[in-house]
Amino acid sequence: MDSLYQYEKRRDFVFNITRLSLWYAHYHTKHGESFGEILNCRTPIYRLTTLWDGVHHPANPDFPTDEPEWNKLVDSLLQLYRKTKSDVARFEEDGFNLLRPHIEGRIEKDISDWPWIPCGYVPYKLPDEQVFGIFAYEMKSPRQELISFHIANSCIPQSPFKDMLARSGELLAMIRDIRSKVPSAAMIGCSSWLNSFPPFLQLFPASYSGDDLTVGNVSYGFSWWGQFMSRDGSFHEKHGNRMRQTGTFPFLCRGGKCSITELETYLLDTFNIAKD
Question: Which of 147, 126, 146 minimizes the C-alpha distance to 136?
């Protein structure tokens, strides 16, 4: 994939998800929620700007309360909201123009970090040895019992679910690597909108399905907002339109976890993978 193609797709995604995030903040503030809380904690805008250092985020308690540039932007957007309560299109357009220099300036950096852009929850790129195709796992301690994993579309511009046999092999390789490096690990899981997406769930046993993470727990991360990225890295217009029509996410972020042993057995049996 050449760099121009990447840039165009990333630009389309960043510009449109910023607009959608502003729409989301306007919609929910109009329904009685705090504008600043929504912007800081429930939209991905800050992490798409040149202000984000990959570690400190306004949703987190260690964020400097006197950060002048971001506070100025939030205040400007709040004043704009107050002027345009009845005109969401104007708020979205004028708000985007305020943010545009900050988000446009970050696009090339995020392309260079693709697909394992630091997410805020994991403020660093995961080591290559912990990446298996579309999957990567966190290793915080050799004695941890629950392993958290992440998903990113390393198959772009194809859907990662076009080849489920390949995905099952990657997942199996990952859990076997976990076994060798983290002997204490017994469970594996993640929180993601993909846990509401049937093709993804085909990779896991029935016991994996977990609890809903309610609307009140919407975060700024791509465990929620990743559903607005299409398979080629551009903005997912269909999902964006559904949010604008309903005010809610097309797919809820859910938690899922299961035992590593059960997952290995399921993958071997379901995808007819030869046992080593």
Answer: 126
